[in-house]
Specification:
Length: about 55
């Protein structure tokens, strides 16, 4: 149970960090937006795979 709460907290903090970066540096370019979107998709797949293996 503690691991799930930690992962949820980590996801929320990552979202806040992303919002702060956009507020500081402004709107990202097309290439950087695509890079970060791909990075986020990879992280979501990795977390989903890890959670599935635990069940």
């Amino acid at each position: 149970m503690g691991g799930i709460l930690f992962m949820a907290l980590l996801a929320g903090l990552s979202t806040c960090l992303g919002a702060v970066l956009v507020l500081v540096w402004g709107r990202p370019g097309r290439r950087s937006f695509a890079f970060f979107l791909g990075l986020a998709a990879g992280v979501m797949l990795a977390v989903g795979y890890r959670c599935q293996r635990r069940l």
